[in-house]
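Researcher: Re-running this chain for the archive, since the previous output was lost when a drive failed. Same request as before.
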Amino acid sequence: MVQPSPYRPGEVTRHLAGRQGQLAEIEERLDYLTQLQRLVPRIRIDYAPRGVGKTSLLREIQRMADSRGATALWVTAGETPGLFAALATEAARVLRPVGPRSRLARLTDQFGLAVQVGVPGIASVTASTRAVAVPQPTARDLQDLLSATVEAARDAGRRAVVLLIDEIQAADPAGLRTLSYAWQHLQSEAQDLPVAFFGAGLPESVGHINRAVSNSERFAYKRLLGLSEDAVAVALAGPARELGVIWDDAALTDAIDEAAGYPHTVQLLGDYAWRRAGRPDPGARITREHLAAAIADTRQDLDALYEARLAKITGQQEVELVGSLAMFGDGPIRRIDIAKTLGKTSNDLSLPRQKLIAAGIIAESGYGQMEFTIPGFAAFVRHHYGLGEEEPPAPTTFAAQIARERGITARIKANAPKDLSR
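Model: Regenerated structure tokens:
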């Protein structure tokens, strides 16, 4: 019997290892919501670079909410113009408001969104074809929409409503303001409305939300870090054990070292090791030899990912910043040390730093620090920018071409780092 791989690189994982702390906090909020039938006062935003497991965490919250009798509304920001329309669409899809007299249907129609119910269990909200102008939703309108959604959920036998917004860095600023002010109204006027809101996004989500709203204290920002060694071991050995396959200790140790806590790498290693073991039957083992071949496969995948990230760098200042950071390693590195290496001030790095954060290449890692978002990227950059002892390859990206032609600031000031009073 050939067993398919239990590892799914790039997909939402069913085995959420290493997030016990986050899940305990979320569980407490969901219990407060469903048992006491109360509003969860603050909006929680988990943020991290891609590949760290934000969407998997949000899907786990969805499962936890469902198991407690709550209706979960899932929205991916940016897919539908405006958060109000996206939430109305999802409420209609999940709760199936039947007929034009339902409160939820009346509210959506008021804003040019026509609720359509066709096949049982399937509903949608589409833009109205009416020629008349419709009002822009306000915080009060969103408050009414949430109240109507709770009402519809209770009619369906559910206890509460949980809003889940993925990719929140793509949310429209007007929608974020409306949401923030609506939550402010709910905190003071409707504490007995059982609604909670969880969001997830890239590191720039924090700045995006703070620029959009004036009452950002309504949001609780939580940085999602890489996995511990124990969590990596669980993430690899657990899914295999469920299928009767055992990882040898030596293979698991090598995988932990190679993964460096990066969840996407963990999934790649697991998937390739499973293939190299021949999609093993129950009773088989994944050995160090299987893992060695899987590491080579994984590194090829990561090189392609590194190339894609490198191709996003198109300016000399970004090239210098990335090259300098690479000389120190994957991070975290103090911003002031990077500035000293380049003979600049910390403020000089602000614009290229923001561009690289937006491109998903680096992330802030504490006050005044930054790091690459993918482990191993520093070594890749050093090689492709010609910052190491080995002969660099022919440039394959515009950034590498810049680095080669312009000497990348005298090979980052003659191969930093030096003693910078760290």
